[in-house]
Amino acid sequence: MYSCPWSFVKDEKKHIISLVGGGGKTTIMYELAQFFAAQGRKTVVMTTTHIWKPKENSLARSVQQMEALWQQGTYAVIGNLEQGTNKLTAPSAFLLEHTLAASDIVLAEADGAKQMPCKVPADHEPVLLAASDIVIAVVGMDALGKTIGEACFRWQLAKHIFASECNFLLDENKLAKLILSEQGSRKNVCARDFYVALNKCDVAEKARVQALQDILLEHGIAKEKIWLRGKR
After folding, report:
1. What one-character-per-residue DSSP string does the chain give?
2. Contacts for 21 with CB less than 8 Å, ≥ 6 apart
3. pLDDT band of 1, cuts 50, 70, 90
4. Domain boundaries, given as residue ranges, for the chain
C-alpha cells in the first residue's frame, strides 16, 4: 500500500468497496485484500460481473472454506466458475448474504474494461453492490496522449460526456471530466464515498500527473482521496 493516502484502509471499520473504471482494478483489489488480511480483517474478494479465477489457493466455494481461509490469515475469493472460461462470476445469493454479514471487508470488482486505461460505462454498468459504502474509480495515466479510441473501453458512449463523437486525444482536462462525470466514473455513486486511483503514475510526466490531480482538487475531490499509484 505504498503511498496510499486513503483513510479507510486504517480506520478498522467494516467496508463494502466497489471498484470501477479502467485497467488496474483487479491488481488494486488484490493489493487491498492482502493489506486488509494482514491486519487480521476478515476480507473477501468477489465480482458482480467477471474476474479471472485466482491462481493461488484462495477460492472459497462455501461458508466453511471462506472461514477457514480467514483463520489462516488470508483473504477469500468467492464466486461461481463460468463454464468455458477461466473466470468467476457473482457468488450465489446465499454465500453473498453470509459474506456481507460475517466479513469485515468486501472488495468487489463492479465492471470490466478489457484492460484499457479508462472506461465509459454502458447502461447496465457498473453493477454496484447495494450495500457498498465506498466506490474506487481506477484510471490509467497511460491514457494521456492517446486517442479516446485507443485508451477508453466503450469510448463510443463518451459523446454523452463530451458532446462529441470525434476520436480526440485525451489530455488532463478530458480525463478529469471522465472521472468526475455521473455518466462516467461517478455513475451511480450517489451518497457513497468516492475515491480515485490514478494508476501507472510512473509512466506519465510528473507535471501531467500533478495537473490532473489539481483539476480533481478544484472540483472537490479531497487530496487524501486521490492515490497517485505507481512503482516504488
Report:
1. -TT---GGGSS---EEEEEEESTTHHHHHHHHHHHHHHTT--EEEEESS-EEPPSSS-B-SSHHHHHHHHHTT--EE--EEPTTSSEEEPPPHHHHHHHHHH-SEEEEE----TT-SEE---TT-----TT--EEEEEEEGGGTTSBHHHHEETGGGGHHHHS--S-PBP-HHHHHHHHH-TTTTTTT-TTSEEEEEEE-GGGS-HHHHHHHHHHHHHTT--GGGEEE----
2. 111, 113, 118, 119, 136, 137, 138, 139, 179, 185
3. confident
4. 7-228
Predicted confidence (pLDDT) per residue in 111-120, tens digit: 999 999 999 9
Is the pLDDT reported for residue 232 higher than 60?
no
Residue bearing cell 465480482: 47
- The CATH number that domain 7-228 falls under is 3.40.50
Query: Model's pTM, two decimal places?
Result: 0.96
Work out the percent of the chain whose per-residue pLDDT is above 70.
Answer: 99
Could you tell me if 77 and 58 are in contact, meaning their C-beta atoms sit under 8 angstroms apart? yes
